[in-house]
Specification:
- This protein is of the alpha/beta class.
- The chain folds into two domains: 120 residues, Aspartate Aminotransferase, domain 1; 236 residues, Type I PLP-dependent aspartate aminotransferase-like (Major domain) (Aspartate Aminotransferase, domain 2), CATH 3.40.640.10.
- It is built from ten helices and 15 strands.
- It has a seven-stranded mixed sheet with strand order 4-10-9-8-7-5-6, with helices on both faces. The protein has a four-stranded mixed sheet with strand order 1-2-3-13.
- α2 runs antiparallel to α7.
- The protein binds pyridoxal-5'-phosphate.
- Pyridoxal-5'-phosphate (PLP) binds next to α4.
Length: 373
Amino acid sequence: MKLFDVYPLFNITPVKAQGSWLWDEKGEKYLDLYGGHAVISIGHSHPHYVKSLTDQLNKIAFYSNSVQNNLQVKFAEKLGQLSGYPDYQLFLCNSGAEANENALKLASFVTGRKKVIAFKKAFHGRTSGAVAATDNPKIVAPFNAGHEIVFVPLNDENAFEQAFDKNVAAVIIEGIQGVGGIQMPEDSFLKFLEAKCQSNGSILILDEIQSGYGRTGKFFAHQHAGIRPHLITTAKGMGNGFPIGGLLIHPDIKPWSGMLGTTFGGNYLASVAGLAVLEVMENEKLIVNAANLGNYWLRELKKLPAITEIRGRGLMIGIDLPDGLKNVRNDLLFKHHIFTGEAKPNTIRLLPSLAMTQDEADLFLTALKKELQ
Ligand SMILES: Cc1ncc(COP(=O)(O)O)c(C=O)c1O
């Protein structure tokens, strides 16, 4: 059988990884400043993470959510403590799209409404329809049975006011737009959304799937604005490569049996991987490291006149280059062996491990300066 050919691939096959580094099958070494779209939060194959998963694999890897799983409870407690949301509830699933599906469904269950406001250039995942095609009224929310989604420009309060009405179940927004090119919601705009949702009985959903987990120098990007959304979705960096998604749920939202569910979500291995990530983040003070190295990069990058614009916070940075410098990302990879990401039309996306070192940060600056000369 052949693979379904949906991904544009580089002809590089990583076979080993450690910290911020990858090795291919020829033994060539690469600096990874992308981490498979912000997934590698604590560094590749961190020894504590590897040991935790290996030990667990030798005990029990999976049993369904129909029995108690104390590892899930420990994971939830640690996440509550480190994220600043100890009073919230955690629902575990397997990916970012699933976390957002569950958030939209929950918002619709809570409000009885089915209209959603989202933002231009947003990316929230690639699923649709599974619940709507399920014949069980208990788990189909009004949203799943037919919905209206209105897209408004980011940071435009007037456009938002025009779309916002009593039918709105949820407003969904990324902490920082990732796929959309590191577009930042203003702190004042997030505060405005919070107030609007409060007064209208609508649910504010913060998609922190790319921007969360310490990347911006706070646990979640929206915490720079000092807001507390009803629902926060997370994935990517949660498992450092193990597929985990999650939904942090405001204490006022009450569950009922069967309201949400998934076969694999929060299984033993996933819980142990998630817990190990949080333990490393805490022990190695990775959020502070992300803030420091992010500020350093932003300061240094702003000195380079060839760059059109720089956006970002912490270790989530977008570098806009003019059309004439379209090859820079490929040159960084093939000439300097540095992996970065991109966003169209010509933005380099930096999403390194939060455990990146100063020397690794400098390697990138040196290579980029060479390419921009
Ligand atoms: C902000 C955001 N939300 C949701 C998703 C979807 O996550 P997944 O690919 O795990 O379904 C992504 C993936 O890139 C994302 O960046």
